[in-house]
Every structure is written in C-alpha cells, then in structure tokens.
Amino acid sequence: MSLHILRTTTPKRRVPDDQLGFGHVFTDHMLLMDYAPDVGWHDARIEPYGPFALEPSTIVFHYGQAVFDGLKAFRTASGDVRLFRPQRHLRRLNTSAARVCIPPIDETFTLQALKELVRLDADWVPRTPGCSLYMRPTLIATDPALGVHPSRTYRFFVIVSPVGAYYPEGFKPIKILVEDRHVRAVSGGLGAAKTPANYAASLLAAEEAQAKGFTQVLWLDGIAHRYIEEVGSMNIFFVIDDELVTPPLEGSILDGVTRDSVIALAQNWGLRVAERRIGIDDILAAHGAGKLTEVFGTGTAAVISPVCELYYKAHTIVINNRKVGPVTQKIYEALTSIQQGLTPDLYGWMVSVLG
Ligand code: COI
C-alpha cells in the first residue's frame, strides 16, 4: 500500500512545553486509513489535522465498536526522535481489535506510516525532559446502521499530541481510594482490550473518588471484590518483603507495555518479581506487618506514578511515609533515561523515526 501525503499549508503555533498538560494540543497532521470488505485496508494518507464527518447513525457512536492505543516518541540529546516499543503497541492494538471484531491492520506498514507522520511533525516533539509526543492510534466502526452486529467498514486514524505529565502531581506520590462498589471489568469481558467502554466504566468511580480528595481509584476484581486489578488507567505494582508483585494477566487486566518494561528491568537487576493474585486483605496484612514498602502505577501516559496512601473501608494505609521509595525511583530513572536516550537501550525498545 502506498501512503499519500498532503501537507498543511497553515502550520499551527507551537505551545511552550511548560503549558502542555496532557492531550489538549494536537500537531499539524494525522494519519488515516479506511477498511471495506472488498478491498481491505486502503487509502492510507497523511492529512492536516482536522475534523471528519460521520453520519449520526455510525455504529461507533451507538455500540462503541472501537479500540485505541497510546504510544510515545522522545527527542534524544543528539536530536534523533525515537518511538518507545511501537511494535508492541501495534500488536496490542490488533489484539484489542480482535476482541471487538475489528479487522487487523498491517503492523509493518503502519509502523512505517507512523514514522513518516512523526518525521513530518518532528518540530512538535518537546525538548523538555518529562515531556514527549503522545500518539493515539484508533480504530472505529463506520457503518451507518443501527443493527447490533460488527460493522463492515472501519476507519483507522492516528492523532499526535505533545504532552507533559499526565497527572498534575507529576512524579509525586498520589492518594488512592480502594473502590469496593463499582468494578472496571470482569474476566471474560473487555478488560484486557484497550476499548473505550473500559474507560467509560471507570468515570463515575473516578469522579466520586476525586470529590473525596483522591487522585484515582484502585480497582478490585468484579466477582470477589477482593483481588487487586489496576489503579486508575494504570497497572499496579507493590514492593512486599523486597519482592515486586503485580497482578497476573488473566483477562480483565490490560497487558501494559510499561508494565512489561518494568518487569524486564527489575528481573534484569536481579529483583524478585511475581505476577500473582493479591487480595486487598493481603495488602492490609503486609502493611500491618511492616512489609509493604512501596506501591506504584505504570502506564504509557503517566509512566511511573508513586502511590503514598491507600484508603479502604476506613483504613488508611500510608506507604513509605508518603515518600517515593527506592525501587520506584530506580525504575522511573531507568525507564525515562532509556526513553530519552541517556543510557544504552539494552532491550531494543527504542525505534528511530529516521530508520
Ligand atoms: C496510557 O497510559 O497511554 C493510557 O492509555 C491511559 C489513558 C491516557 C487512557
């Protein structure tokens, strides 16, 4: 497939890095591709960023047949621009798509098209450490029809946003409410797919938690309301008795790329790492015994987010005197140094847009 490029004739003004926040500013261009059953994915093109028209009957508006992913590009000190683990993100996009009957995209072609998009908008890649270029590949069902069945036609698009920290707190410990009423996902449902419904399901609990002064919620499993799943829109890690523990991927939890990277780093350092079920009662017990020393969330948007307090049924669990712990700090520094090209990338995670 060829990629048609239409450059903007009216480039936008850049926003200073310290005013970016997360996901408010969009670059000059976007990538698009369409799907029809007779021709498959076709008409790959880069165009000026802007609205596109869809009929109000379009399936995605009614039944949410859509998936997305999120990945980042970083500018290195030598001026190169590199994507963080793009192949793994595109593979996950296709895995998510399969769960909601969306036909897969060609990952190799799409990676080349993504690089072209970032090369075109390279001026938008922030220069400030802690900032990056966030890409949002998205697949939506586009048939204008109200019957509940998979769409025949689809659109793929990638929009690009220069971003700062996801949480206004930045790399500061956050307070988390353990959610014991609403659930995000159940095994066999959509939790492992990056589909908008999961995020819609999270909104009410997050609003209620924020009204009580918490940044986000800790999700428990949908059946026993006991096992820990995710934190906000991130995966979660605990340091208990010098072991790094995270819940296993059993169908209701997203297979986070940052989660996978943290596990790889920790194992490489010789830390004990366990992917195992852990109940909120186990967390209370470990805290009571003085063995729970650190808690942090991981995600592409927030990278590493230290947790200083968990609140559960009138118990307040204060972690590490509300300070960032040594494992959290070491992981944050290792990951962000690789992303910024400050330390060698032993894992082959960074992909230059020039290659
Ligand atoms: C990410 O970490 O990239 C996410 O998808 C979380 C959120 C911005 C949806």
List keywords for this structure.
single chain, 355 residues, alpha+beta, nine-stranded mixed β-sheet, 24% helix, binds 2-OXO-4-methylpentanoic acid
Describe the structure.
This protein has 355 residues and is an alpha+beta fold. Helices cover 24% and strands 30% of the residues. The strands form 2 sheets. Strands 1, 2, 3, 4, 5, 6, 7, 8 and 18 form a 9-stranded mixed β-sheet that branches. Strands 9, 10, 11, 12, 13, 14, 15, 16 and 17 form a 9-stranded mixed β-sheet that branches. A hairpin with a 3-residue loop joins strand 2 and strand 3 (40-48). The structure holds 2-OXO-4-methylpentanoic acid. 2-OXO-4-methylpentanoic acid binds next to loops.
Give a nutshell description of this structure.
The protein has 355 residues and is an alpha+beta fold.
Which class of secondary structure composition applies to the elements?
alpha+beta
Q: Tell me the radius of gyration.
A: 21 Å
Helix content: 10-25%
| Number of helices in the DSSP assignment | 7
Mean pLDDT: 96
Overall form: globular
Topology:
Layout lengths: L2 E3 L23 E8 L3 E9 L10 H5 L2 E3 L2 E5 L5 E4 L1 H14 L7 H14 L11 E10 L12 E10 L10 E6 L16 H16 L4 E5 L7 E4 L3 E6 L2 E4 L10 H12 L3 E4 L4 H9 L3 E8 L3 E10 L2 E4 L7 H14 L10 E3 L3
Parallel strand pairs: 1-3, 9-10, 9-16, 13-14
Antiparallel strand pairs: 2-3, 2-8, 4-7, 5-6, 5-7, 6-18, 7-8, 10-11, 12-13, 12-15, 15-16, 16-17
Bound molecules: 2-OXO-4-methylpentanoic acid (COI).
